[in-house]
């Protein structure tokens, strides 16, 4: 077999990563590194590797990659049968195709760049029973190999449709997502070298989700790192298919079913984040901030910004042109929600462009700002820089007394918000309060009574918020936490019964009301809730009776038995005098107990 030089990649033969699960040489990864002069078998393959010179870095090529090597092949008696060093030109070939010898490909996948080794190949991994010129049948052969370099080759869609060769590696491990804005440079050519598309010198910028030119570009871009340069071989179905493309912008037309060659560079990209998760507040990072910490909720932040409408009208400036920056505490409704939520995600020194829908802006009202009036239902744009922030201290940063004080403060803030009807924010305050006193083991015996009272109070108040927000399962969970500590807590039983009634679990509601009356027989609010429950039970029984009557009638209608006349009566059970009186009372006075009669715990 002759040594083949400079042969290009056969796209149809590129192996996918799924084919490479159990190749010889895998076990070497968990073994100690070879020392110079040391020899070791690769797995149980019979292939032996002797290290002659160390390589650099830690990466190794994979099957499908294009490697460039020098090698000398010899028999065990030292007779040479092939060599790239004779003419001084290395060979480039694709790993996995067995261009030189099958076992040689397996061995090269264990090598680092610049490494020089001696591989000993048994016949099954050499030239087998047939041999080759200069190699007798069933011969053990040796290859002295130096790995000069390699190009990583990736089958992006796993179908040979887009083959990516990495010519220059990128920076870091970050890759763009569908929302991000990318800056790329590319040149597209036909098989004969005709240029059919090319970016300006400065490149071209677009959002990944919007796509550009043809599908293969965006599919390749999301696999690339910043600064990465690649060559793509694109089959027609990921290019312009059987329609081709007409001549435009001074470039010739692209014939139908054309395979395209693309030189592509991802110059940079600006991450775009869906801040609110509903595509109504987007943050495009113009400049990365410092470190890893973000402002988060409850932080005291200082920002500068310019804000404008979609038509370019600037309506507010803060901290620019000598003006004072804006200072506020996040999650305290001191600024519009979109700006508030976005600021909580920013690092110190970060610059970002925010696009904010009306729901997270000024809504459907007219807003008079410093420089202009914001019309109702306006989309807003803010260019913001996070100048500084001071994060609210986390529980682990506080001593026990500070945790108890912080929990008490959050609870009081929640109470004020509850009175103002801001149940969503009040509930978050109660949750934060509990976070400060959530670890039993960290508190002394004399502090346990305080933290138990704080937790129970906040859970109860949080349940009241959940009821107001129609989050009935949330209310049930919070009340159940209280009842785990105090099984006869009347407020917890009362609120959980309310939530059960709202979810039509009348049996559980009845059990909670009964237990609450055992603890406090004269509680007016619980008695009123019991009346409402009985009314609901009467209505439920009537619905059930009607349902079963209809079902029974349908069954008889479909029966083949001769029936002259059948009168179905559902007899109601005899009611006690007390039950009858209760029903009359419920019908005459269907009053629903006020949810506010057991108000939030102020203690």
TrEMBL record:
SMART domains: TPR (SM00028). Residues 1-10, 572-587, 594-603 have a biased composition (Basic and acidic residues). TPR repeats lie at residues 490-523. Residues 64-151, 179-270, 298-390 form the PPIase FKBP-type domain. It catalyses: [protein]-peptidylproline (omega=180) = [protein]-peptidylproline (omega=0). The keyword Repeat applies. The keyword Repeat applies. Keywords: Isomerase, Repeat, Rotamase, TPR repeat. Its EC number is 5.2.1.8. Gene3D superfamilies: 3.10.50.40, Tetratricopeptide repeat domain. PANTHER family: PEPTIDYLPROLYL ISOMERASE. This is peptidylprolyl isomerase. Belongs to the FKBP-type PPIase family. Residues 15-29 have a biased composition (Acidic residues). GO terms for molecular function: peptidyl-prolyl cis-trans isomerase activity. InterPro entries: FKBP4/5/8-like, PPIase_dom_sf, PPIase_FKBP_dom, TPR-like_helical_dom_sf, TPR_rpt. Residues 1-42, 572-603 are annotated as: Disordered.
């Amino acid at each position: 077999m002759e040594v083949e030089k400079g042969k290009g990649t056969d796209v149809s033969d590129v192996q996918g990563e799924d084919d490479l699960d159990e190749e010889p040489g895998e076990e070497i990864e968990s073994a100690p590194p070879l020392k110079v002069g040391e020899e070791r078998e690769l797995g149980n393959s019979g292939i032996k590797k002797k290290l002659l010179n160390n390589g650099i870095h830690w990466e190794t090529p994979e099957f499908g990659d294009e490697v460039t090597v020098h090698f000398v092949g010899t028999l065990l008696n030292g007779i040479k049968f092939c060599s790239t060093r004779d003419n001084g030109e290395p060979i480039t070939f694709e790993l996995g195709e067995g261009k030189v010898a099958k076992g040689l490909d397996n061995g090269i996948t264990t090598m680092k760049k610049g490494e020089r080794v001696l591989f000993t190949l048994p016949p099954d991994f050499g030239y087998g029973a047939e041999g080759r010129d200069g190699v007798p049948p069933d011969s053990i052969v040796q290859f002295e190999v130096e790995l000069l370099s390699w190009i990583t080759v990736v089958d992006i869609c796993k179908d040979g449709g887009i083959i990516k060769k990495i010519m220059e590696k990128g920076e870091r491990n970050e890759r763009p997502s569908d929302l991000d804005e990318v800056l790329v440079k590319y040149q597209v050519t036909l098989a004969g070298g005709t240029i059919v598309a090319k970016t300006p010198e400065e490149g071209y910028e677009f959002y990944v989700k919007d796509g550009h030119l043809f599908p293969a570009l965006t599919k390749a871009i999301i696999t690339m790192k910043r600064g990465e340069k690649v060559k793509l071989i694109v089959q027609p179905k990921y290019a312009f298919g059987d329609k081709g493309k007409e001549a435009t912008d001074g470039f010739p037309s692209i014939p139908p079913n054309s395979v395209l060659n693309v030189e592509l560079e991802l110059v940079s990209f600006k991450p775009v984040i869906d801040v609110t998760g509903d595509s109504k507040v987007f943050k495009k990072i113009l400049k990365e901030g410092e470190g890893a910490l973000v402002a988060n909720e409850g932080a005291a932040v200082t920002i500068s910004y310019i804000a404008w409408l979609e038509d370019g009208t600037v309506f507010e400036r803060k901290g620019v042109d000598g003006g004072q920056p804006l200072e506020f505490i996040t999650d305290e409704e001191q600024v519009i929600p979109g700006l508030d939520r976005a600021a909580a995600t920013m690092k110190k020194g970060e610059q970002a462009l925010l696009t904010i829908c009306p729901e997270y802006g000024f809504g459907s009202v007219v807003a008079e700002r410093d420089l202009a009036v914001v019309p109702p239902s306006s989309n807003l744009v803010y260019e913001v820089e996070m100048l500084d922030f001071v994060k609210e201290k986390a529980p682990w940063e506080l001593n026990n007394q500070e945790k108890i004080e912080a929990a008490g403060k959050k609870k009081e803030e929640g109470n004020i918000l509850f009175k103002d009807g801001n149940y969503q924010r009040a509930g978050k305050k109660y949750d934060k309060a509990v976070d400060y006193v959530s670890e039993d083991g960290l508190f002394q015996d004399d502090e346990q009574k305080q933290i138990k009272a704080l937790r129970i109070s906040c859970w109860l108040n949080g349940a009241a918020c959940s009821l107001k927000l129609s989050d009935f399962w949330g209310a049930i969970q919070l009340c159940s936490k209280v009842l785990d500590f105090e099984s006869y807590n009347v407020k917890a039983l009362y609120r959980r019964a309310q939530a059960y009634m709202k979810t039509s679990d009348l049996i559980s509601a009845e059990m909670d009301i009964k237990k609450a009356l055992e603890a406090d027989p004269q509680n007016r609010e619980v008695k009123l809730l019991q009346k409402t429950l009985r009314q609901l039970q009467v209505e439920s029984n009537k619905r059930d009776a009607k349902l079963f009557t209809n079902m029974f009638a349908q069954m008889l209608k479909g029966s083949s038995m001769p029936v002259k006349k059948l009168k179905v009566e559902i007899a109601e059970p005899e009611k006690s005098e007390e039950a009858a009186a209760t029903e009359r009372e419920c019908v005459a006075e269907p009053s629903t107990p006020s949810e506010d009669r057991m108000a939030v715990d102020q203690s």
